[in-house]
């Protein structure tokens, strides 16, 4: 409720510039989407917004241009679509082979996609067609326990630029 009140107070004077620091932290999904709608409307009414967020889906929804920061430095800047095109592929196929060391599958799927990333619980195959990458995996005689094909997101870009490990 405090977050909602703070945001409402910032909008009372109809500002030309709105600076928001993590505006949806702590909001439930309905309130988050309501706020996104209001910010979208404000943007289209001419209000300039500067937004800091760790939620890449929020940045993808709300930002025309964005800056990815890492270690206090600018790693990349551009529109969400430009950054995805530059640092990722159109789709990502997520493959799970059960509770195993997924690194042992990496040599077998190499070449099925533009880039393969090994995570402890799955493999990520970056390709223009996730379905084609999955078909190539099947052609090599591999049958993942789970397959998910999705479009690339800003989160894929962010993790590629900043890494997946926590930094102290």
Can you describe what's shown?
The chain is an alpha+beta fold and 168 residues long. The chain folds into 2 domains: 2-84, P-loop containing nucleotide triphosphate hydrolases (Rossmann fold); 89-151, 2-Layer Sandwich (Alpha-Beta Plaits), CATH 3.30.70. It is built from 7 helices and 8 strands. The model has no long low-confidence stretch (mean pLDDT 90).
Give a short overview.
The protein has 168 residues and is of the alpha+beta class. The chain has seven helices and eight strands.
Radius of gyration: 19 Å
Describe the sheet with the most strands: 4 strands, antiparallel
Unreliable parts:
none
Report how far apart the termini are: 32 Å
Topology:
Elements: H1 2-11, E1 17-21, H2 29-44, E2 48-52, H3 56-62, E3 66-70, E4 73-78, H4 80-87, E5 91-96, H5 106-109, E6 115-118, E7 123-127, H6 130-139, E8 146-151, H7 154-162
Parallel strand pairs: 1-2
Antiparallel strand pairs: 3-4, 5-7, 5-8, 6-7
Domain ATPase AAA-type core: 13-54
Protein name: ATPase AAA-type core domain-containing protein
Organism: Mobilicoccus caccae
